[in-house]
Amino acid sequence: MPNVYQPKDNHLLAMLAQAEWERMAPYLVAIDLPLGQVIYESGDPIQHVYFPSTAIVSLLYVMEDGASAEITIVGNEGLIGIAVFMGGETTSSRAVVQSAGRAYRLGARILGDEFHRGGPAQRLLLRYTQALMAQMVQTAACNRHHSIDQQLCRSLLLSLDRLPSSELRMTQQLIANMLGLRRPGVMDAAMKLQEAGLIRYSYGNIEVLDRPGLEKRVCECYAVVKREFDRLLPDLQAI
């Protein structure tokens, strides 16, 4: 039986008040996001925002020499395009699909208008933005102070929290780009996790076999981010 998707698979959309949902729902467009697709480049004007349901999108800061490092990831807990309601018209990061899946696209102006109504949607989006900023700060600290395998565990666990299954579709090169590392370093870290029986890796696909094992191996950064999302968006736990 084919999968049945709906916009409220995205938790922010599911948390909208009924009146807000009714104003926005007619303009939501379901789209498929293939692995590696670039949604925004740094400096692009934002025409649409995206509410992932089964896809995961990585926000990357790209250096002049082409090197990149992950700032944060967004999945079914959030949206891509917060600059629309935070006072900017462009994004300073690249948004690239980390794990293929579905999202719902909405015109930027429609979300901006809803935000400026000043109702429950505004408060929801501001709380989400604060949680996202906390994740960005923790990611920067993790990338500076923790080992490659700890960073990989953090990335895998955060991704799992945003997916309905234990399988992630992503390549080692994409992971390396996200973490700002060379591919051999990521390969070594992935092999350590596989040898420990925590994951099974094949090209383009990672299956998590032992989540509790990953949680024991990961640094404190994963728990810090999760606590902040639970504090600011407690309703996410009930969805």
Short description:
The chain has 239 residues and is an alpha+beta fold. It is 41% helix and 21% strand. Helix 4 runs antiparallel to helix 9 and helix 5 packs across helix 8.
Mean pLDDT: 86
Query: What's the overall geometry?
Result: globular
Please name the CATH topology of the largest domain. Jelly Rolls
Tally of domains: 2
Structural class estimated from helices and strands: alpha+beta
- CATH architect. name of the largest domain: Sandwich
Question: What are the segments in which pLDDT stays under 50 over at least 5 consecutive residues?
Answer: none
First and last CA, distance: 23 Å
What percent of the residues sit in helical stretches (DSSP H or I)?
40-55%
- Main beta sheet: 4 strands, antiparallel
Return the CATH class of the largest domain. Mainly Beta
Range of strand content: 15-25%
The total beta strand count reads 10
Number of helices: 9
Strand order of the largest sheet: 2-6-4-5
**CATH homologous superfamily grouping of the largest domain:** Jelly Rolls
Gyration radius, in Å: 17 Å
N-to-C order of helices and strands:
HHEEEEEEEHHHEHHEEHH
What does this structure look like?
- With 239 residues, the chain is an alpha+beta fold.
- It has two domains: 7-142 and 227-238, Jelly Rolls (Sandwich), CATH 2.60.120.10; 146-222, Arc Repressor Mutant, subunit A (Orthogonal Bundle), CATH 1.10.10.
- The chain has nine helices and ten strands.
- The protein starts with 10 loop residues before the first helix and ends in a 7-residue tail after the last helix.
- The model has no long low-confidence stretch (mean pLDDT 86).
